[in-house]
Structure formats: structure tokens, C-alpha cells
Design a protein that fits this description.
Number of strands: 0
Number of helices: 6
Structural class: mainly alpha
Largest sheet: none
Shape: elongated
Radius of gyration: 21 Å
Distance between the termini: 29 Å
Strand content: under 5%
Helix content: 55-70%
């Protein structure tokens, strides 16, 4: 059985295709955009690409105001920093050489991803 997200994607593809087939010439610009979205989505799924913002924590999260931080992570920044310290000291925090060629994420990244 397909996952619900895959079913929704499939329904969206069908909806776009039906719209493309039934549209008139005044919708040509929208059609081009829809086709580009379909192609990009198919490529991403095929190659396993996920769009990412590089250095998101350093460039974005670290610049959050206190209300923005609390809104996104549901805890105060001070509480989050305390959790990061606890996790860094625990046996569960990954340490050492990269595993499988992938560098281990920091304790901060683990906690922020978990809270997000």
C-alpha cells in the first residue's frame, strides 16, 4: 500500500494533468509552471534530492529573536541550551570519526531537529 503522502502526490499530479488537458490558451504561463514543478518533483524523488538551506542553524536559527525561537521550538532558548549540554554529556551523543563517510551531527543539531 502506498504511503498517504505518495497518494497525495499522485492525486496532485492527476489534478495538474487534467488541468493541463482542459485549459485554454490563456493559461499557458500557468501550464509551463505546472510542468516545471512536475519535472522538478520527479527529479528530486528519483535522485533522492531534498532542497536544503546550507548552514541553517548558524545563519537563521541563531539570529531568531526569543519569541521566534519559542514559536518554532516550543521551549525557551535557555532551556534548549540546557538540553544541548545534557545531551553532549550523555552516552547517546555521537562522537568520534565519521560513520559511513558522513560527519556526525553536533549535539545542538540533534536537539534542535528533535524539538522542531
Amino acid at each position: 500500500m502506498a504511503a498517504p503522502i505518495d497518494q497525495l502526490r499522485g492525486l496532485r499530479v492527476i489534478e495538474i494533468m487534467q488541468d493541463l488537458l482542459s485549459s485554454d490558451s490563456s493559461d499557458d504561463d500557468d501550464d509551463i509552471i505546472d510542468v516545471q514543478l512536475l519535472r522538478n518533483n520527479a527529479r528530486r524523488r528519483r535522485w533522492g534530492e531534498v532542497p536544503k538551506v546550507e548552514n541553517f542553524i548558524r545563519d537563521v536559527v541563531d539570529k531568531y529573536s526569543e519569541p521566534e525561537f519559542k514559536s518554532d521550538f516550543r521551549v525557551f532558548r535557555e532551556t534548549c541550551n540546557y538540553l544541548i549540554e545534557l545531551f553532549e554529556q550523555s552516552v547517546y551523543c555521537p562522537r568520534g570519526a565519521p560513520f559511513g563517510g558522513v560527519e556526525a551531527k553536533s549535539a545542538e543539531e540533534h536537539i534542535l531537529y528533535y524539538l522542531w
